[in-house]
């Protein structure tokens, strides 16, 4: 059962994003190893260590973070043995499991990228659905808080909300007729 704050009310009634939506509309697999499963194979662990070391090198730039552009520049066209894993790390960081620091490569994606590079199925769908539910909850909480503030606050206040999940997977028009 989907918690109430992950439902949206649209003109046709209530709607939510399901694992089937994530699988069919997003193309994310729902079968395979968990995204949080640790690596056990020695060769895969060595590859992860190499990626972590390279990430550390990228953080030693002026930006002091493993930004995606720096990551691309470090790997693109190098022919390095782990170039494919590096590319998949960026893809997962950017399109599958983005984080608050949307433009960085996070270490937790390395094990996923290593498995994908070797053709090992990884169940990305459930992790994507979790991120969608997280952002829908955040959207509802923020909307409720702003509604409660009403006219008590100045009209010139600026408010920013960062939603990172791929909400485009929702089949309903969440921008139209959105009511709480």
From TrEMBL:
GO terms under biological process: meristem maintenance
Pfam families xrefs: PMD (PF10536)
Domain Aminotransferase-like plant mobile: 11-147
Domain of life assignment: Eukaryota
InterPro entries (alphabetical): AminoTfrase-like_pln_mobile, MAIN-like
Protein name (record): Aminotransferase-like plant mobile domain-containing protein
Organism: Vitis vinifera (Grape)
Lineage, highest ranks first: Eukaryota, Viridiplantae, Streptophyta, Embryophyta, Tracheophyta
């Amino acid at each position: 059962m989907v918690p109430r704050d992950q439902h949206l009310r649209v003109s046709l009634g209530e709607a939510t994003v399901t694992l089937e939506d994530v699988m069919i509309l997003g193309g994310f697999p729902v079968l395979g190893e968990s995204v949080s499963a640790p690596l056990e194979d020695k060769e895969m662990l060595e590859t992860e260590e190499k990626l972590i070391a390279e990430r550390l090198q990228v953080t030693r730039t002026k930006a002091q973070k493993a930004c995606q552009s720096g990551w691309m520049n470090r790997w693109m066209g190098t022919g390095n043995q782990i170039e494919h894993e590096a590319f998949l790390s960026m893809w997962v960081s950017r399109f599958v499991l983005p984080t608050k620091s949307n433009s960085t490569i996070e270490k937790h994606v390395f094990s996923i990228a290593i498995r994908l590079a070797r053709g090992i199925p990884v169940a990305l769908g459930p992790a994507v659905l979790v991120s969608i539910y997280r952002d829908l909850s955040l959207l509802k909480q923020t909307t409720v808080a702003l509604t409660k503030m009403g006219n008590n606050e100045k009209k010139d206040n600026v408010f920013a909300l960062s939603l990172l999940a791929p909400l485009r997977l929702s089949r309903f028009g969440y921008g139209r007729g959105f009511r709480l």
